[in-house]
Structures are given as C-alpha cells and as structure tokens.
C-alpha cells in the first residue's frame, strides 16, 4: 500500500460538449461512476458554435489539448512524491473513448 501512495496522479478529461457528443459522454460517465478524482474541460470548437463557419485546422485543435486533434482525450499527469529530491512529471495522453473506458 505504501508503494502506491508515493506517486500522485492527476486526471484531466478534455471533451467536446457533453450535450451533443456521446463519444465524450461515455468516458465522462465511466470516470464518474468509478469514483475517479478528475477534472473535466469542455473544448469549444468554432464550427460547433457556427456550422457555416470555417473548420479548425489540425494545429488549432492540437493547441486545445489533444495531440491527434480528436476528442475526448484523457491527460494523466504522474507527479513524483513531493518529499523526493528529484521531482518529475510524466504526462500520458489517451485518445479514444473506448480506450479511456478500459
């Protein structure tokens, strides 16, 4: 048990609107039901606000928190214990509703 308490993990789920995107809703509900301590950030894309407007480029979507430009994406930050001298943060991104749910 002590070994698992040495590292702290923070979860951040980047989703599209939960109102319109069932693919974003799935991992949100799974994490909520599992009792995971996570933060959720809703990404707003211009073409979702204005269907006649231009679609964002892949680079613009990447700046919103997803390497592949697809959502949802779960960001897992693994922080070393504060008491250690060499603090390091490792970030892992999971892109896909079904992969996040597993």
Share in β-strands: 25-35%
In DSSP terms (H or I, runs of 4 or more residues), the helix count works out at 5
In which range does the helix fraction lie? 25-40%
Describe the strand arrangement of the main beta sheet, using strand numbers. Answer: 2-1-3-4
Return Rg in Å: 16 Å
CA-to-CA gap between the ends? 23 Å
Structural class: alpha+beta
**Poorly predicted tracts of residues:** 1-6
**Sheet with the most strands, sense and barrel status:** 4 strands, mixed
Number of strands: 4
Average residue-wise pLDDT: 77
- What's the SSE pattern? HEHEHHEEH
Shape verdict? globular
What does this structure look like?
- With 102 residues, the protein is an alpha+beta fold.
- Helix content is 30%, strand content 26%.
- The chain has five helices and four strands.
- The protein has helices at residues 2-5, 22-34, 46-49, 58-62, 97-101, and strands at residues 8-15, 38-42, 73-79, 89-95.
- Strands 2-1-3-4 form a four-stranded mixed beta sheet.
- It is globular.
- The two termini are 23 Å apart.
- The relative contact order is 0.24.
List keywords for this structure.
102 residues; alpha+beta; 5 helices; 26% strand; disordered N terminus
Fold topology:
Layout: H1 2-5, E1 8-15, H2 22-34, E2 38-42, H3 46-49, H4 58-62, E3 73-79, E4 89-95, H5 97-101
Parallel strand pairs: 1-2
Antiparallel strand pairs: 1-3, 3-4
Question: What's a concise summary of this model?
Answer:
This protein has 102 residues and is an alpha+beta fold. The chain has helices at 2-5, 22-34, 46-49, 58-62, 97-101, and strands at 8-15, 38-42, 73-79, 89-95.
